[in-house]
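For the sake of transparency, this paper describes our internal protein records without simplification. Because each token names a local backbone shape, the row as a whole describes the fold. One such record is reproduced below, unchanged from the form in which we store it:
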Amino acid sequence: MRLSTPCVGICHLNQNGLCIGCGRSMDQIAAWREMDESERQRIMRMLGESAAATRRNELAAPRIVSLLPSATEMAFALGLGDTVVGVSHECDLPPAAKSRPSVVRPALALQGMTQRQIDTAVSQRVNEGNSLYEIDEALLQQLRPDLILTQDLCQVCAPSGSQLADALQSLNPRPNVLSMTPRTLGDILENMRELGRATGREAIAQELIASYRERFGRVRAAVPQNVPLKRVFFMEWADPIYCGGHWVPEMIELAGAVDAFARAGQNSVRVPWEDVLRWAPELLVIAPCGCDVDQALEQLPTLTALPNWSSLPAVQRGQVFCVDANSFFARPGPRVVEGVELLAHLIHPALFEWNGPIGAYRPRVTARGFSSCST
């Protein structure tokens, strides 16, 4: 049976008056019945190829809602910024992300709290089985996402998968969900690959991953070999004191140092101050999770009041640094590469220049107090 028309009922014309599907004018389309079979088949192939291209484009550009900042940064790095229709309240980079509606809000008001008070409030809420975040289900319905980016690694960092499952009950059709649970640098890169695969950007993801690996390799190659590694303590929380975990130990190793307390691929844990004193770090990195440099600096009065603070080699040598953990260490996204380069600069300043953002770290602290800002 021959088709009476090559179209599905409505023609969409371009600026030249030609159908965007078959490339013919309305008069030519009207002459469908008089065409020979070969011409009809050619047009049908063109329509099929056009429909396939449309489907590929739809796959490559789903409507994305990101519930965690690192995934938002990945999406923009892959060129998907225009398709990100919703974010969390903490998604602040690139700046364009802040213009998207926030579908996540904190369940606790932590403003004005000390780190000790934050730790107590967060621990209590988690132990009671309550989430630290609330998802705006009504807004999520309005945004009609095709893909939701979430995580199931840390209850403190973003809404968990179980919490999202409840919100998904109200969505029809159900969007795809990509859950990221990175514990290592390799996992972070694989998350980017998975996001690229899910959005038709796998080739771009592969290029970015290759460039990140190259930068890791340049740092590793420049680190002096066959010399004692500098003793470092990476402080992921200041009160109480926590060590670095997950991907941070790899970052320290790549940068050419050793941290006795770092827990590669595992959650960070509390570390007694007496153990830190015994380790006698030669370099101390103050990097409270989720904090920028100014917030890290606010912890110094608490730390300098600790017993025997001034006896630490790092303090005596002016090797105590407050860093922007929120940008370069806490988020498992593209900027961990810069985090490795920042650590390499702090550990081996004569070998590695820091060409990243001004204010990524400051200041140096000595046994006598503060020195001038280094950047």
